[in-house]
Amino acid sequence: MAPAAPLVNVAVNDTIATITIDRPAALNSINPAVVHQLELALAGVEADPAIHGIVIAGAGKAFVVGADIEFFVRNIAADDIDRIVKFTAAGQRLLNAIDQCPKTVVARVDGAAWGAGMEIALACDFVVATPQASFALPETSLGIYPGLGGTQRSSRAMGVGIAKWLIYTGKIISAADAWKIGLVAQVAPRERLDEFCALLASGRAACESRPATTPELVALADFFAGARVDDILANRADTLGNPALERAMKQAASKSPLALRLAEKLIDAGAAVSLEEGLQMELSHLVEIFNDPVTHSLLGARAKQIAG
Fold first, then answer.
1. Which of these, 50, 63, 49, lies nearest to 19 by C-alpha position?
2. Exposed, middle or buried: residue 38 (CB in 10 Å: 0-12, 13-18, 19+)?
3. Where are the beta strands (DSSP E) in 185-274?
4. Distance (Å, whole) CA 282 – CA 275
5. In whole angstroms, what is the distance from residue 293 CA to residue 291 CA?
6. Three-state SS for 281?
């Protein structure tokens, strides 16, 4: 039997190594094999003194659309939540290695960076995206919360209010809006994407200056920073008559109540402790969230949708 094709590839150009997640048929969704191969690839290029910078990319139409839903559903059916916990812990170790890498790491985003994809981007030093890129933390729509550092790195990078807005609503945002909130360092046309990634990875370019945030983003950040999840779920949080905030509150209220409450707890508590402690808190609630019947139903429905 021929060996399975690698899910992660490494290419070196001059002093820059590009690590590509190569699972395009699954939109580069993350599973244990991908995490393991990424870990090996990152360790290899980090140890190479000839490599000065690292670019992480996704093959095909997406960067990474999230974790592999079928992996979750299969292990829930087998009553093996421990395997999900181990996978998430391994994913956290990988993202910590990216975050702590002594070489500059750039996320090359052309297409969807959702869920685990956005969490990988948050762990990188810089994110370069095309105008066609999009970003989201949609886990609460599936009855779970971001578990690869999403509740922790998002609030540290963009502020508590923006982190809660994105996580509670699962809102998909454009590269332009991701730039405005500080997630994306540079928006580049597709034909110049590799050039900008290499320049940032090698330290030969600075990021473009960011404009002042928009009044709408300020209002969303202020609302979600102050509103409590239980008030959002009851549609009684004070939106000050702002239609955009009314819509955002309704979006959030449609999500899994347990996922929202745990996300709120993790973001609020995480703001008072170290990143390491915050990440441990994410792991500590996985058994609770993956044993929730609402989570089972939402993940199962999504798996059928993908398969069908």
1. 63
2. buried
3. 186-187
4. 11
5. 6
6. helix
Give Cα 40 to chain centroid, integer Å: 21
For strands 104-109 and 112-114, give the pairing.
Answer: unpaired
Active-site amino acid positions: 119, 139
pLDDT tens-place string over residues 148-189: 999 999 999 999 999 999 999 999 999 999 999 999 999 999
Number of residues that this document lists for the chain: 308
Question: CA angle, 75 as apex, 70 and 78 as ends, to 5°?
Answer: 130
Angle subtended by helix axes 150-158 and 257-270, to nearest 10: 60
Is residue 292 classed exposed, middle or buried when 0-12, 13-18 and 19+ CB atoms within 10 A define those classes? middle
**Backbone region of residue 182 per phi and psi (left: phi > 0; alpha: psi in -120 to 50; beta: other values):** left
Of the candidates 152, 149, 165, 150, the residue with the CA atom closest to the CA atom of residue 213: 165
- CB-based contact 30:66 (threshold 8 Å): yes
Residue position matching structure tokens 């996300």: 263
Nearest of 94, 96, 146 to residue 118 by alpha carbon: 146
* Contact call for residues 107 and 63 (beta carbons, < 8 A): yes
Helix (H) or strand (E) holding 252: helix 243-253
The separation between CA 56 and the C-alpha centre of its own chain, rounded to angstroms, equals 14
Collapse the DSSP code of 272 into the 3-class scheme (helix H, G, I; strand E, B; otherwise coil) and give the result: coil
pTM for this predicted structure? 0.95
Which of 138, 172, 188, 168 is CA-nearest to residue 260?
Answer: 168
Tokens of 200: 């940032």
The answer to whether 119 touches 149, Cβ cutoff 8 Å, is: yes
Contact residues for 273 (Cβ-Cβ < 8 A; gap 6+): 281
Closest CA to 7 of 21, 18, 17: 21
The SS3 call for residue 80 is coil
CA dihedral of residues 36, 38, 44, 47 (deg, nearest 10): -110
Q: For residue range 208-236, list pLDDT tens digits in order.
A: 656 557 899 999 999 999 999 999 999 99
Give 57's strand partners: 20
